[in-house]
Each structure stands twice: as structure tokens, then as C-alpha cells.
Amino acid sequence: MDKEILTRANEWLSPTFDHETQIAVKELLDQKPEEAVESFYKDLEFGTGGMRGVMGVGTNRINKYTLGKNTQGLSNYLKNVYPDEALKVAIAYDCRHNSDTLARVVADVFSANGVQVFLFSELRPTPELSFAVKYLDCHCGIVLTASHNPPEYNGYKVYWTDGGQIVPPQDAEIINEINSLKFSDIRFESDASLIQTIGEEFDEAFIEASIANASFNVKGKDQFKIVFTSLHGTSITILPEVLKRAGYGNVHIVEAQAKPDGNFPTVKSPNPEEPEALEMALKIAEETNADMVIGTDPDSDRLGIAVRDLDNKMILLNGNQTMVVMTHFLLEQWKKEGKIDGNEFIGSTIVSTPMMERLAEAYNVECKIGLTGFKWIAKMIKDHPEQDFIGGGEESFGFMTGDFVRDKDAVTASLLACEIATQAKASGSSLYKQLIELYVKHGLYKERLISLVRKGISGAEEIKQTMIDLRQRPLETIDGAKVVKIEDYQSSVSKNMITGIEEALTVPKSNVLIYYTEDGTKIAARPSGTEPKIKFYFSVHQKLASTTKFSEVESVLEAKIDRIVKELNLV
């Protein structure tokens, strides 16, 4: 074992760490040296969605000490930034193993530092935590969640006063504060007088706000059938009540997946991006002739939906399709109400569908494009108070309407999806038909995501080398079409490959590379900020003359993506 790694591990055998932790570390060193290396070779880092990792002992694991150190550093930072204020934080947690106990540890450390804590009494959706930060006028918020990661993971998301996740320069400043600490600096001795539990009475405010932002008094709700699955996660605590109060009485809950369970026993992955995760719901939808399936991830910030296609079969929409339909609906509502005067904007990300920009042009609003991660859309709202935010989304099944929550919100977005589909059905159409009509108007955009899992030290090196190769030996053609532009967000340079002219990219630096071809193909590559994966995002498009040509053109675009995937050796 590397000497430096061994030194890091031996530190955890000191009296700073409790007896149980010391025993676990000694067992790793004696019996599982490879696992010990993985646990101690680096410090767990903040990524796209906060800090996320495997639970266990070690500096590269989620445990009471790594999260305690985060919280101590954050407490110190808050005192420096707000020296004369009585500090307040809100803390929520999801269904994962140890989320409740880790949330209590975080609450203890904050209170030990004199910070007033509002701790949810039971598990709650992540968007409710974002709402709580603003509603309770807190200085920051924490949610213990690993979103849709496997059962062995947990995580720690940090939110700021606006209800959005931390972004530069705050994130770096907080990380520097955390890195300056020793584990012995953590104050674990809680002050119970500073910890206040919140629960059902607070849910009321969130439910009312969700309905106010996503209900449009559409007709036909009593004839609209919904199948809903929480995938063993937190949305079961809120979403059924939101749908009920909004007028949806025909909601079939997938009972086998309704009980919160960190093992996620009925799915391989509790991720609505994965078709397998919604198999149970889809089966029930066919049995009950439902109009829509809704599935949310464990912390209820992402949603997947399925609707009836042109042949009346249930079909899963991808995140790009969902965000396009939702954004179009909101734009239409704003237009009907005479609220669009050119001072509005919608939000999207650099790896999401270009069709969002086409929608913005059609309605004379701005489309702001940010990095991957919903914190960047929240930052758009914070940075531009002079503009009205209509809604925004990202391809990874996240959407937000209005700004009462400053993160992707599957609770409110689920209600919005129901409103859109119900209105369409009542008018003799369907959500799917409306999507195709949008393609006729703006062009058929077809997207696909391929994620390659590369675990451990060797996996991290492989991902790193892949990005190096794509930069040092850039592709010249893709599926026979010339590459005309390459955007490198790590160097903040956009290069025209025909003229050689370079322009500066204005968004913050990130390890993302995007290729554009002369025929409109867009391919993005980026290592995941929360999982051991490298992701490739494909977008191709073609004009669609009529709805009757949809299947034909879609097949052409699917075949094009297939060829590109094969060309890049991703299969």
C-alpha cells in the first residue's frame, strides 16, 4: 500500500475517531487492503450535485466524520460571511440508509456551533428543502441524499439563501474552509435547544405553493387516469396529496414501490431515466388503461413520464422531450395572459436539446444556457432579478416552473405534466401529439445519452484519458459530416474548425467538450460530477414536413445516432 494512503488510514486509528470507526478501519487494513486504498486514497470531493459517495469509513467515503468536517467548515464560513446575524439552517433527508442519522449528526454539529437548526422530522423531497430555505429565511440548507445512485451511496447537498445550490465563488471558498480543518476540529456536542423539528405544518405551505405554480384549472381531470410510483423514495410523502388537492382523483399508486426503502428492492436502479425502473408502473397502466405514468427518483427532484403514443401504446419520454413540452405549455400560458414583453427567460443546459432555443425564439423570450446541474439555472434567476423566469429544465429529467423552488422539482413538475396531458386529452389531442406538432413547427430533434461506468482508481484514470484523447486528437468528421466547431469548457475556448477563429466561452470552466458538425449534429462528452461515469450526449435533427412523416424521420435520426455510436466505439 502507498505510504501516503497508509498514513491517512492510520490517522483514523487515533482517539479523534470513535471506537467503532477504529475497528472498521483496522479491519480494512488487515483484511481488505484494496478497499482500504479506495477508501483513503483521496478526499471525497464536491461535484455537480454536491458531495456524493459510497458510505463507509475513510476520507473518500460518506460518514459522520467527512460530513461533520463539511458542516464544521460550513459553520465557520457562515460566521465569517454573516458575523452579526443569528444563523439559521434547514436540514432534510431522504430514504437512504443512514440518511436520518447522518442528518442528525449534521444538525448536532451546526447547533454545537451556535446555529439554529430546522430539522425535518421525517424524510422529505429535496425540492421541499429548497423551498424551506427561502420560506424560513435561512442562511443555508442541507439535504442528505444520493439522488438516484445505488443503495451503497449517500450524499450532502448545500443550498444558499436563495434556495439554490452553492455555486462559484462560494463553493470554492467553502471547500477551502473545509480543507483547512482537521477532523479533531469538528464540534459534535449538540445544543438541543437550537434544534427545532418541522413537519406536517410546513408541508402545507409547500403543497399550496406547488399547486399555485403548476395548476391551470384545466378541464377533464375526473376522466384522466394516472399511475404513480415513488420508486421507494420521498415523493410518496407529498405528491399524492398535491395531485388530490389539484383535482386528480383517479391516481393509482404502485403499492409495491410506495414504501420508502433504501435498498430499492424492486428495481436495479431507482432512476426514472432508466426504462426498467418504471416497468411495474407501465404494467399497471396497461391493465388500468391509464393515460399517464409518473415516476420520481428517491429524493424527488427528477421525474420520468410515459404517455400514450399514436398507436395508443405507453411510451417513455426522455428528459429533453418532457422539458420541451412543459416549456412550450408555460410559454403559451404566459402569452395568453399577456405576460410576455421580451423581459422573460427560460433556462437550459449545454448538454440539453437545442430545441429549447427554438422555442425561446418563437415566443420572443431569452433562453439562457448554463452548465450541467440545476444550480446553474437557479443562479440565472439570482443573477437576473430584472427578468422574469418562466421555467427551465435539463435533459437529465429535471424541470422547474416558477422560482418558489430553486432546484429541479419533481413534485410540481409532475402536476404540470398532468395539467398538460389532461388539457390535451380534453381537446381531443394528447401530450404526445402535441410533442410531434412542436417537431413539425421547429424541427425534429432526437437525443440520446450513453453513460459508461468506470469505477475506482483505474476507472477515474480511464475517464481522464478519454477526455485527454478527445482534446488532443479531435474528431474531424462525424458520420461523414465535417466538424465545424468545438467548444472546450475546460479551457473556455470555442474554436471554429473551418476558419481557426477562437472565441471565449463565458460560462464557468467545466470538464466538458462539445463537437458540432456541418449537418447540425451535436455531441457532448463529460465525466459525471456525481457518479463514476463518463457521459456522451447526442443530438441530431431534421425538418419534419408533417405529423404523418414522424415515424419515418425519427427512424432516420435513430439510425444516424446508431452509426455515430458505433463510429466512436461506444458499443
UniProtKB/TrEMBL annotation:
<feature type="domain" description="Alpha-D-phosphohexomutase alpha/beta/alpha">
    <location>
        <begin position="318"/>
        <end position="439"/>
    </location>
</feature>
<dbReference type="InterPro" id="IPR036900">
    <property type="entry name" value="A-D-PHexomutase_C_sf"/>
</dbReference>
<dbReference type="InterPro" id="IPR016055">
    <property type="entry name" value="A-D-PHexomutase_a/b/a-I/II/III"/>
</dbReference>
<keyword id="KW-0597">Phosphoprotein</keyword>
<feature type="domain" description="Alpha-D-phosphohexomutase alpha/beta/alpha">
    <location>
        <begin position="205"/>
        <end position="306"/>
    </location>
</feature>
<comment type="similarity">
    <text>Belongs to the phosphohexose mutase family.</text>
</comment>
<dbReference type="GO" id="GO:0016853">
    <property type="term" value="F:isomerase activity"/>
</dbReference>
<keyword id="KW-0460">Magnesium</keyword>
<protein>
    <submittedName>
        <fullName>Phospho-sugar mutase</fullName>
        <ecNumber>5.4.2.-</ecNumber>
    </submittedName>
</protein>
<dbReference type="InterPro" id="IPR005844">
    <property type="entry name" value="A-D-PHexomutase_a/b/a-I"/>
</dbReference>
<dbReference type="Pfam" id="PF02879">
    <property type="entry name" value="PGM_PMM_II"/>
</dbReference>
<dbReference type="InterPro" id="IPR005845">
    <property type="entry name" value="A-D-PHexomutase_a/b/a-II"/>
</dbReference>
<dbReference type="InterPro" id="IPR016066">
    <property type="entry name" value="A-D-PHexomutase_CS"/>
</dbReference>
<dbReference type="Pfam" id="PF02880">
    <property type="entry name" value="PGM_PMM_III"/>
</dbReference>
<feature type="domain" description="Alpha-D-phosphohexomutase alpha/beta/alpha">
    <location>
        <begin position="45"/>
        <end position="183"/>
    </location>
</feature>
<dbReference type="InterPro" id="IPR005841">
    <property type="entry name" value="Alpha-D-phosphohexomutase_SF"/>
</dbReference>
<dbReference type="Pfam" id="PF02878">
    <property type="entry name" value="PGM_PMM_I"/>
</dbReference>
<keyword id="KW-0413">Isomerase</keyword>
<dbReference type="InterPro" id="IPR005846">
    <property type="entry name" value="A-D-PHexomutase_a/b/a-III"/>
</dbReference>
<keyword id="KW-0479">Metal-binding</keyword>
